[in-house]
Specification:
The longest helix is centred in the N-terminal third of the chain and has 33 residues, at about 105-140. The radius of gyration is 23 Å and the shape is globular. The strands form three sheets. A four-stranded antiparallel beta sheet has the order 1-2-3-4, with no helix packed on it. Strands 5-6 form a two-stranded antiparallel ribbon. β1 (about 15) and β2 (about 20-25) form a beta hairpin. The chain has helices at about 55-60, 70-95, 105-140, 145-160, 165-175, 205-215, 215-230, 230-235, 270-295, 300-320, 340-345, 355-360, 365-370, 380-390, 405-415, 435-440; strands at about 15, 20-25, 30-35, 40, 195-200, 200-205, 330, 425. α7 packs across α15 (about 405-415). Residues about 1-20 and about 25-30 have low confidence and may be disordered. It has 16 helices and eight strands. The two termini are about 45 Å apart. The chain is mainly alpha-helical.
């Protein structure tokens, strides 16, 4: 049963990506592996793969009003999300204390711990709405005026320690080079050599050795921790998940492309003033937090701000991670990549109640990657039109798997690709023989 609908599968199976047996549904043509996992309907390695439409052909099926941007409509959502945040703070202020209970083994201590963690989760969830709105500003989808967009985007992102103009540029590159193994940006896949594999099967260090040492489940948990807890700051510092080429198109050769230095190879020289302005804004935010800690104490600042911030960062990384990664979704080397191929490698997923808080950024992500200038409050209408056009062609990716189950699957299966050229699919370290087994052979 998927999304409340019964599906009858054809009796004949075909071999899918990675050698998995793939079944096709007789209704809605939903494909799954033998163990029930969703599979992308598009396989560019299939000789019968459909021809891809142009961006213009896809745009032609979307109602023109979907591209109309409204100052009032966008600012309404800023006010709505701010009111939700204020309400969350008010409830926490009325029910919680920042003083640690004297007896840490008491029921009161348990209530204190659960209370502040509940606040952190929901406040982080609400603030992710502000983050999405600032992201809209960076894309130019917030209003017809980019000056207006940058003003509000700068305020909302800098308040969340995001260097607005720097990330605006790197995220635009993520859209320009989606699923490009060389020049992509954010969640660029590791090669087998970078994972510590020699000859494709021998573990000689790195993540491959860690995986062997701790096992499948713990390694998947490590993947989730690395992405959701430390992934965002590492990415901003240029230490993880960046592309392999600088803004000049040349290999980085070990250079770090962070989001803070105006002279970072991430950015063209014409953006140096804006990058510096973003960095100054982040520094100013940290200075404000320092003085707040001096005035009120480090613990209250951590409880009121840092806890929600960590959940906010976890959500934004989760979306980018899950909307572009699956063992059945291709990654393209420069020799195979095109903009349409990259954009159509995006996946829509259901997020339940979180769609309300996060402005449907995960359930309408295909439309967003095709037309980033489209305001989010029109994306559901556009998604319906895109789905009606692409799905019969076998070109629309919608995985009905609940997001938390999809996260676990991606953490267990999307570890590396064989090469940086051609059409590649994610592979899993779980399929690599252990060193002790190779020695026996």
């Amino acid at each position: 049963i998927i999304s409340g609908t019964f599906h009858t599968y054809a009796s004949t199976n075909t071999m899918g990506k990675g050698g998995q047996s793939v079944q096709s549904s007789s209704r809605n043509d939903i494909k799954t592996t033998k163990d029930g996992h969703w599979v992308s309907p598009y396989n560019p390695l299939d000789p019968k793969a459909p021809a891809l439409p142009s961006k213009g052909e896809i745009k032609a099926v979307i109602p023109k009003e979907c591209f109309e941007r409204s100052y009032f409509h966008s600012m309404y959502f800023v006010a709505r999300d701010t009111a939700l945040a204020a309400g969350c703070v008010y409830i926490a202020h009325q029910t919680l204390s920042t003083d640690v209970p004297a007896d840490l083994a008491s029921v009161d201590a348990l209530k204190w711990f659960l209370g502040w963690n509940t606040y952190a989760f929901w406040m982080g969830c609400i603030l992710t709405g502000h983050w999405v709105l600032a992201h809209e500003c960076g894309h130019g989808a917030f209003s017809p005026s980019q000056t207006f967009n940058d003003f509000w985007g700068f305020i909302m992102h800098q308040a969340l320690l995001v260097p607005y103009f720097a990330w605006q540029y790197s995220h635009a590159k993520h859209h320009r080079r989606t699923n490009n193994t060389m020049d992509g940006e954010s969640h660029v896949p590791n090669s087998k050599d970078e994972m510590g594999l020699k000859n494709g099967v021998e573990r000689h260090g790195g993540y491959a050795a860690i995986h062997e040492a701790i096992g499948d489940g713990p390694f998947a948990m490590l993947q989730i921790f690395a992405h959701l807890v430390i992934g965002w700051p590492l990415y901003l510092m240029g230490l993880a998940s960046t592309g392999r080429l600088g803004n000049d198109g040349k290999p980085l050769d070990g250079a770090v492309i962070d989001h803070y230095r105006p002279w970072s190879k991430m950015f063209p020289s014409k953006l140096r003033f804006k990058i510096a302005l973003s960095t100054i804004g982040v520094i100013a935010s940290w200075v404000g937090l320092y003085f707040a800690a001096q005035e009120y104490g480090a613990l209250p600042v951590t409880l009121w701000y840092m806890g929600p911030l960590m959940w906010n960062q976890a959500w934004l990384v989760l979306y980018t991670w899950l909307q572009h990664n699956d063992p059945s979704v291709p990654q393209y080397g420069p020799d195979e990549w095109t903009w349409v191929k990259g954009a159509l490698s995006t996946i829509d997923r259901p997020y339940g109640i979180f769609d309300f808080f996060h402005h449907k950024i995960g359930s309408t992500h295909v439309a967003h990657h095709l037309f980033h200038e489209m305001p989010f409050y029109k994306a559901d209408v556009a998604t319906a039109a895109i789905k009606a056009y692409l799905e019969p062609k076998g070109l629309y990716n919608y995985d009905p798997t609940p997001w938390y189950m999809a996260m676990w699957r991606v953490a267990k299966t999307c570890h590396y690709i064989d090469d940086l050229e051609g059409i590649q699919y994610y592979k899993s370290l779980e399929d690599i023989p252990l060193s002790k087994d190779l020695k026996k052979d």
